[in-house]
Amino acid sequence: MTIRVDHLFKSYGANLVLNDVSLDFREGAITGLLGPNGAGKTTLVSILMGIVAKDRGRVLIDGLDLDRDRDRIQARASIVPQSFAFYPTLTARENLEYFGALYGFKGRRLKARMDAAIDAGSLQSFLGKRAAELSGGMKRRLNLAIGLLNEPAILYLDEPTVGVDAQSRSYLLDRIDRINRERGTTILYASHYMEEIEQISQDIAIIDGGRIILHDRKEDILARRGAVTLTLQRLPGSLKEALDRVAGLRVEAETLVLDRNEDLNRTLAGLFDVLARHGAEVRALNWGNGHLEALFLELTERTLRDE
Amino acid sequence: MNRIYHLLKKEFLVISRDVHAVAVLFVMPMAFILIMSLAMQDLFTTQSPVRIPLLVSNRDGGKPATALLKTLRENASFEVKDIPATWSDAEAAAALNDDDAKFVILIEDHFSAVVRDRKPRTGRKPLVVLVNPVVGTQMQLIVQSVLANALGKVRIEVMTKEMSPLLELARIDPRTFRRPSEAHIEMRFVTRGEQRFRAPNAVQQSVPAWLVFSMFFIVIPISNTFISERSQGTLQRLRSIRLSRGILLLGKMLPYFFINLIQVVLMLLVGMFLVPALGGSALTLGDSPAGLALIAAAVSFSSIALALLIAVVARTTEQATTLGGLLNIVFAAAGGIMIPKFVMPAVMRKVAELSPMSWGLEGFLDILLRNGGVRDVLPECLALVAFGAVMLLLTAAILKKQFEGSVSP
Predict the structure, then answer these.
(1) Which of A165, A291, B14, B271 is the Cys-Cys partner for B283 at CB 3.0 to 4.6 Å?
(2) Nearest to B234 among A77, A87, A97 (CB)
(3) Is there a contact between B236 and A46 if contact means CB atoms under 8 Å apart?
(4) Does B180 map to a domain?
(5) Is residue A142 part of a domain?
(6) Residue B129 is part of which domain span?
(7) What is the ipTM of this complex?
């Protein structure tokens, strides 16, 4: 199912959370929605799911307008919230049965949906345990399983791996990947974990300050070459003075940053000449491609994001 | 129906596994009913086993003084203990603090003379009562009245004795004058239906009061589950399942309505069987099960609606618990739950009329104490339903605003 977002605006009081967001999510793809804390990821996902009202703009899902066809859209979608959206005093089975029944399933159909969700989350061994007694990883799996009860064509995942160990994270990512491949589910995966987005997504959208600042296929994004960086073993004062005179070069602590432009080769020649004269030792060299984190930090700037 | 069934089932499972909720909804009111019924039963019984201790110093020693003492000893409400006539006022006053006594009665040495002369003397009165300051005004008035009554009897005895030759001539039996005045008084309790109890007792008063109080305490579990659902994202998930506000509210109201009804049945059973098993009086139910069901339903509706409003207004469970608890205490204190309305001054009785707990209490008293029927509880039920409807409308409006995202959820 395709998702089209046109000029979306949303604010909470004076706080503008989404500022003219427009993008299309590809049908059947996993789109990683990457952004720092407070970027607007959860709000965007909540609006697409129809549980938070937008201020302005239009959302079309498979041609259906969210304003007019919310019920039909919600019937075909599901959200796995960042928080553990289930009842801690109920067992895993009771939670699945409860949410399954609220989806409108009963009898054999309910059992079949529960079995499929149990299988997807590998919940068989702790179905009788109260949710509060489950480990962080198990809770995440239960959270995901509940989201799969209605076999959604669109799945919104909001930080689905927060607070879990490496094994559980790997398991969850694998499951999500399988759901996408086997069922063709369109998945919007909101996270601030770049390595997860890089691993699981086919498309990547970067959101910051309520705006989409980049949206493209993953391979195209990763193929983009960023700035060339050289990290020196040490940077004595005399060398710094000499480097300051090299055009097209920025010095950030022990790292030298060269912007990619037509003067790059000339700048590099000048730089190596200076380094050779001062006997400087290069610790690392990055040719500026294939690193999502570098691109993300470059796009969102390196300032701290306090929520 | 399947959805409603699962909403009910879920809420019952959540409540039954929440020790604090069970304690607040069931254990607390049971304890209140037991404690209040057993502790206060003597206030309502006419054959009181608990007697007011009196210390008496008979400094007179004459026959009228001895007759007064005899009258006091015969009164079942008092436990009379003698203190030496030689004690000074200070020693007698000190005995008030050393003993459990609340009063010391000093029968002064000129008591008999005053009674015989029937002439008021200047200076010290023939009867002096030293009062422990912890004693309330009501008890002071009771003692004062009993003493005045006893004094009257003694004076009549003295008079009839002195006038016996005249009475014999007139062929009047002197015993006519000595008959106790209580013999001329009959106390009748007025109920709307047939009276089902011998006399109003503590359990008949306590059960309705603490039952209403406990039903309103539904605010604690309702707000806790609602706020937890909101903060844990469960509410978000429920909304994504296309659960309307109406179903959401119904899903909260129905289970707690049943829980309120379980409270009613349980508290009535406690009053009927547990309190008498522990030595108290037994609760009688009256003749109108329909009236009882009606007032129980009305109290439940208003308490749940108030609880839902608090749940949507409060941002944290701490806020809800504080706000809900505070409101309940204020409603209970003002509404005659903690202090009976009949002991309140007129202004406070007017204030009490504003408390929904007062309406609920009056409704239950109509059925359990006054043996009324459906028609008798209709005014209270209407007031409770109107109150609940206003609370529910406010809840729905606030929830709508929150759902629409105009308020950050």
Answers:
(1) B271
(2) A87
(3) yes
(4) no
(5) yes
(6) 50-162
(7) 0.75
